[in-house]
Amino acid sequence: MAYNTYSLKEAANRPERLVAGHRMCAGCGGPVAVRAVLRALRPEDRAVACVATSCLEVSSCTYPYTSWRDSFLHTAFENAAASASGVEAACAALRRRGKIEDEYKIITFGGDGGTYDIGFQSLSGAMERGTDMVYVCYDNEAYMNTGIQRSSSTPAFADTTTSATGPKSAGKPQYKKDLTKIMAAHHIPYVAQTTFIGNFKDIHRKSETAIYTAGPAFLNVLAPCPRGWRYEASDLMEICKAAVESCVWPLFEVVDGEWILNYEPKKKLPVTDYLRLQGRFKHLFEPGKEDILEAIQDDIDQRWEELKALCDMA
Amino acid sequence: MSKRDRLSGNEAVATAIRQIDPDVIAAFPITPSTEIPQYISSFKAEGLIGTEFVTVESEHSAMSACIGASAAGARAMTATSSAGMALMYELLYVAASDRLPIVMAAVNRALSGPININADHSDSMGARDSGWIQIYSENAQEAYDNMLMAHRIAEHPDVMLPVMICQDGFITSHAVENVVIEDDSFVKGFVGEYRPEKYLLNPDEPLGVGPYSVSIFYMEIKRQQFEAMSKARAVIAQVSADFTAQTGREYGMLEKYRMDGAELAILIMSSAAGTGKDAVDILRAKGVKAGLVKLRVFRPFPAEDVAEALGGLKALGIMDRSDGFSACGGPLGAEVRAALYGKADGIRTINYIYGLGGRDMRTEDFEHIFGELAAMRDGGEAPDCRYQGVRE
């Protein structure tokens, strides 16, 4: 389906490939990301989902049940991309030898723990090798499956169970790793950053482009976690919108090395409008933390300007 | 027509891999198995194999890619040693529990530290509880032959378990020997086609591999692995007998060397068995009732064959090329003694730790050991476990 003919109704009416009955929390961005990505598959096309150990994995394929209509592979936490490259190699070998006829789209899902951190090496290797697959990071900015520990994706000053707040700590001391930019530095055909906005056109188009681009593609999807971020389940979309409107999570893509900004807010929201929605930043709104809020705003502003420069919009 | 060629252990195994022409190989170089992926690359470059060669960035990814490929329905192989195998440990368990018949060319090398590139068995012994079948080779010929048998064993419907074919680093992997190489067409016929029953790329039946398994199911999955490993004994015997019938080269769970009438014997695996046989010949010429048992299959452990082969001995030296640091011996010592208990009681045993980090094991060392065994047979006292060939 071409970009300009996107219809949410048509996309939403496609047969679900991650079906109901999984055990992810209400208000979690994980299954929303998976369903949005899988909706971009042409219904007649076959896929194999490779999933890193994560909330998604333990909650969607719990023996003897599965929510996945397509074949599904989980091996471990740090190696989803490597496992997927084995599936891709098998696909190539078996097709060439006439043992299978169908083409399969290999789609890999990992959380930020399995992608930014423990799985970073295998992801980098698989992308560098030119593996024909889409790697989707559902980024909820902490190790949620083990109970909300900080990751290299956790934003600065967030309260997590390993970056606890207290009289001597204002939360995570380090800033968030820019993984999307690192993936772009692999010079792969397609890299994009997206989340759930409006009618899901952005994530749908990027998923479709990623799936139907030959070679490796990487999608980074901001996928909030109600337990870790501490928001009401019904606030998921509002938080994603605030992330985009405050430029905390810009929507952009890198197509064959060309950086394209997909959305520029007419009026950039102050970062506090985003932080205030989440319990993990609650401590930053106590008196005397103004300098921290300012530092966060400065960091977001600097990253936004850098991105605009890359997109030739400075 | 088979032919005789001068090959190192690595070359012999690489030749077997070329003849098998698997669907996928994922490997990362590590001394002393590095030559194997190098050969794969040149076979690809010369158009001799149709294998997809995944040049991964680590051994962890090598085993992960093998699991992905095997789950997808491909015949998948890898090669590794030492720290590389240790980096795979997590995934070795996954491969076995997923019942994926992956075959690994394992070239045994010591584990760090201190860092050392030479032969011992600490790498594969660290994987002994991972659920892989382990077959050990004395020389390049055996490494080649075992590789030809590996897929038949791994892919047998009663088994469906991964197999590692072990040979000693440098001693076997790099030494050039005369090796009988079978015809390509013979190998293709002997190994046969792989037709998996369940696989990810089956359009008629999507499959979930590696689900989360809670305590109400986990133990049943382990019990099935136990069942498969138990059945592997008969399958290994059957495949080995078929190989022997077709090539004339004899293979069983173990090899008995001059055990008729033996009172003293050693039990050993891999390359040092050759030296041990020489020592037995020297001692037999002197009238010593010496013998040797070479264990070929370590997993599944052939306890009954071991008890049968050793029954009637007066004294036994159990030779471990790795130390389990239990402070009472190595892994082979523990398992062989357990196999003898209640089945072949009364044999006095010493568990020797030898050859760590490539330390030479000479005929003189074996003669010394047989001397200690003779003294023990004659009523002398000896410790349960001792290091051979070490400065103390």
Termini separation of chain A: 32 Å
Proper CATH architecture of chain A: 3-Layer(aba) Sandwich
Whole-number average pLDDT of chain A?
A: 97
- Oligomeric state, counting identical vs distinct chains: heterodimer
Given helix and strand content, the structural type of chain A is alpha/beta
Stretches with pLDDT under 50, minimum 5 residues of chain A? none
Strand content of chain B: 15-25%
Count every beta strand of chain B, where a strand is a DSSP E run of 2 or more residues: 16
- CATH topology descriptor of chain A: Rossmann fold
What's the CATH H-level superfamily name of the largest domain in chain B?
Thiamin diphosphate (ThDP)-binding fold, Pyr/PP domains
Structure notes:
The complex is a heterodimer of chains A (314) and B (392). Chain A is α/β, with parallel strands linked by helices. Chain A has twelve helices and ten strands. In chain A, strands 2-1-3-4-8-7-9-10 form an eight-stranded mixed sheet, sandwiched between helices. A two-stranded antiparallel ribbon of chain A has the order 5-6. Chain A starts with 7 loop residues before the first helix and ends with a helix. Chain B is α/β, with parallel strands linked by helices. Chain B folds into two domains: 3-247, Rossmann fold; 254-387, Rossmann fold. Chain B is 41% helix and 19% strand. In chain B, strand 6, helix 6 and strand 7 form a beta-alpha-beta unit. In chain B, helix 1 crosses helix 2, helix 3 (59-72) runs parallel beside helix 4 and helix 9 crosses helix 12. The longest helix of chain B is centred in the middle third of the chain and has 33 residues, at 215-247. The radius of gyration of chain B is 21 Å and the shape is globular. The chains are: A alpha/beta (314), B alpha/beta (392). Chains A and B meet through strand 1, helix 3, strand 2, helix 4 and helix 6 of A and helix 3, helix 4 and strand 9 of B. Strand 2 (71-73) of chain A pairs parallel with strand 9 (208-209) of chain B, so a sheet runs across the interface.
